[in-house]
Amino acid sequence: MTEHGYNEVSSAEVEQFRCLECGKAFPFKNSLTRHAVIHSGVKNFKCDECGKLFSQKAGLTQHLLIHSGAKNFKCDECGKLFSQKVGLTQHLLIHSGVKNFKCDECDKRFTRKCYLTRHLLIHSGVKNFKCDECGKLFAMKSTLNKHLLIHSGVKNFNCDECGKQFPEKCGLIKHLVIHSGVKNFKCDECGKQFAMKCNLTQHLLIHSGVKNFKCDECGTAKGLSDSAIGIELLKASMDYGSDVGVLSSLAESDTLSSAESEATDAAASQFSWGMTAGCQCAVLEIKQH
Hints:
Blueprint: H1 11-14, E1 17-18, E2 25-26, H2 29-40, E3 45-46, E4 53-54, H3 57-68, E5 73-74, E6 81-82, H4 85-96, E7 101-102, E8 109-110, H5 113-124, E9 129-130, E10 137-138, H6 141-152, E11 157-158, E12 165-166, H7 169-180, E13 185-186, E14 193-194, H8 197-208, E15 213-214, E16 221-222, H9 227-237, E17 245-247, H10 258-266, E18 271-276, E19 281-286
Antiparallel strand pairs: 1-2, 3-4, 5-6, 7-8, 9-10, 11-12, 13-14, 15-16, 17-19, 18-19
Helix pairs in contact: 8-10, 9-10
């Protein structure tokens, strides 16, 4: 008996009712019974706002807070607000640095199992979400939604260093690495260094000898080492992901800044090229993946 008159519950009693599906333990049988509905797949509680279904009324009640617009739970690390405490709790894992869920395909790690499950769709090769604007396919709806920002023309994230604008915050964060001057990724073939691993990976296509850029007029195949192609890819990459159109009056390669040079390599796998007017100027088109 505690000082408040309640009977103390031993750890053995707390774990008396354990879920055979996930191993979670409950102190009361009715708590286990309510929990078991989650594993049954039955979802009788529907959100009138978005149509999402829930197995328990409590889940629906918590979900409705999202639509209310109220966000009373704040992260002390970054100031981000959440409508639910569980959302804040899960978010805090990001700041902890702990990533216990690893992808066996690419070794990328995640803070939550659901993030890993969603990531695995990329490796499955299945892409069921199509952009109506350009036809590009995506494995996840969330990725498609982010991609659509490119076509919207809205760019709310500005670089204070060079003024370049981005439709997504993650694009700005990646871009800022270029201005930091830190280049930890080195090409073993030529010694060139890059701020981001993805740029090194795309740069290696130059040394592979693969010629993916074909002239629509004369059929000549070109690789990324060709200066004209590199310069035009540079111009296109500086507005990453947007329409490119016809670019002429090619500049000399020695006029490139280090940031521009890296951007050229970063854009390498994003574009194809053709020639017009007797191969006098390059015409770039975004590849449809």
